[in-house]
From TrEMBL:
It comes from the Bacteria. Residues 5-212 form the Tetrapyrrole methylase domain. The keyword Ribosomal protein does not apply. It is an enzyme of class 2 (transferase). InterPro entries: 4pyrrol_Mease, 4pyrrol_Methylase_sf, 4pyrrole_Mease_sub1, 4pyrrole_Mease_sub2, Cbl_synth_CobM/CibF, Siro_Cobalamin_biosynth, Uropor_MeTrfase_CS. It comes from Hydrogenophaga aromaticivorans. The gene is cobM. Belongs to the precorrin methyltransferase family. Its EC number is 2.1.1.133. This is Precorrin-4 C(11)-methyltransferase. GO terms for molecular function: precorrin-4 C11-methyltransferase activity. Pfam families: TP_methylase.
C-alpha cells in the first residue's frame, strides 16, 4: 500500500450533525482517527468503521501526534485528524502539517463550522447589518500566547465592528478593559455563548460591557465560550432596520429588475 492521506477535518462546534457531509464520509472510510477529546464531541467518531483505530490526542505532545499520523498513513489510505470548529482558526493545523510535509505524507483540509458561527446561530444574531457594520474580526485577548503588535483588543475595537473573541472567557477583565479603552460605552451589548450547539449543554448569556463579567461568574461559565461584542446584537428587536440593498424593491441587480 502507498502512503495514505491525512485529512484535517473540521468537526464543527459540538453538535455532531454540524460536521460537513464530506467530513462524515471521510470518517466513514477512515482507517485511523485522531481527535482532540477535550474539545471535539466524541459522537463525531460514531460514523467510523468498526475496525478503525481511534485515538484521543488530549494527552499527546505535538511530536507524538505527528508521529501517530505518519505511522498510520503508512498503513491506511485515509487518516483523519478531527479538529474542533474550523481547522484554520486557533488550531494546530500548520504545526502538524509541517512534519507531514517533511515525511512526504499528503495532506488535505476539510473546513468546518466554527464556534463563532454556531454562537451567532444559537443567539439568532447577525454579525453584519447594513449601515451598522460590514466587518467581523476573529480575535482573542492575550493569554499565554502573546498578541502581535497592533492587534490588542483596544486597537481592533476602535473599528466598532463585530468582534468574535475566542479563548478569552477567563480573561473578561481584559476584554472589558480593551473595549472601554476604545470608547465602547457601559451599555454596549455583549453576548457569551457557552458550548454553542452542544446538545443539552448550550447556554446563552446576554449582557453589557458593564455586566457580562459578573453574569458569567454567576453562571459558572469558565471554558468553551465565545464572547461576541457587536453593535448588531439584539437587532431582532429593533423597530427600525436599514434594509439590505440587495432585496430592496428599488435596487436592480444581476438576478432581478427593480420593481419600483
Ligand atoms: N477552531 C475552533 C476554535 C478553537 S479555539 C473554531 O473554529 O471554533 C477554542 C475556543 O473556541 C474556545 O476557547 C472558545 O472560545 C471557542 N469555542 C470552541 N467551541 C465552542 C463552542 N461550542 N461554543 C462556544 N465557543 C466555543
Amino acid at each position: 500500500m502507498g502512503v495514505g492521506t491525512v485529512w484535517f477535518v473540521g468537526a464543527g462546534p459540538g453538535d455532531p450533525d454540524l460536521i460537513t457531509v464530506k467530513g462524515r464520509d471521510l470518517i466513514a472510510r477512515a482507517g485511523a482517527i485522531l481527535f482532540a477529546g477535550s474539545l471535539v464531541n466524541v459522537a463525531a467518531t460514531g460514523w467510523a468503521p468498526p475496525d478503525c483505530l481511534i485515538a484521543d490526542s488530549k494527552d499527546m505532545t505535538l511530536e507524538q501526534m505527528s508521529a501517530w499520523l505518519i505511522a498510520n498513513a503508512a498503513r491506511c489510505d485515509t487518516v483523519v485528524r478531527l479538529q474542533t470548529g474550523d481547522p484554520a482558526l486557533y488550531g494546530t493545523l500548520i504545526e502538524l502539517v509541517q512534519p507531514l510535509d517533511a515525511a512526504g505524507v499528503p495532506v488535505a483540509v476539510v473546513p468546518g463550522v466554527s464556534s463563532a458561527m454556531a454562537s451567532a446561530a444559537a443567539a439568532v444574531e447577525s454579525f453584519t447589518l447594513p449601515e451598522v457594520t460590514q466587518t467581523t474580526i476573529f480575535t482573542r485577548v492575550e493569554g499565554r500566547t502573546p498578541m502581535p503588535d497592533g492587534e490588542d483588543l483596544a486597537a481592533l475595537a476602535a473599528h466598532r465592528c463585530t468582534l468574535c473573541i475566542f479563548l478569552s472567557i477567563t480573561l473578561l477583565h481584559k476584554v472589558e478593559a480593551g473595549l472601554r479603552q476604545a470608547g465602547w460605552p457601559d451599555d454596549a451589548p455583549v453576548l457569551v455563548v457557552h458550548k454553542a450547539s452542544w446538545p443539552g449543554e448550550e447556554r446563552i448569556v446576554r449582557g453589557t460591557l458593564a455586566t457580562i463579567k459578573q453574569q458569567c461568574r454567576d453562571a459558572g461559565i469558565v471554558s468553551q465560550a465565545m464572547v461576541i461584542a457587536s453593535p448588531t446584537l439584539g437587532a431582532r428587536q429593533w423597530p427600525e432596520l436599514a434594509r439590505s440593498r440587495l432585496y430592496d424593491p428599488s435596487f436592480t441587480h444581476r438576478f432581478r429588475k427593480a420593481t419600483t
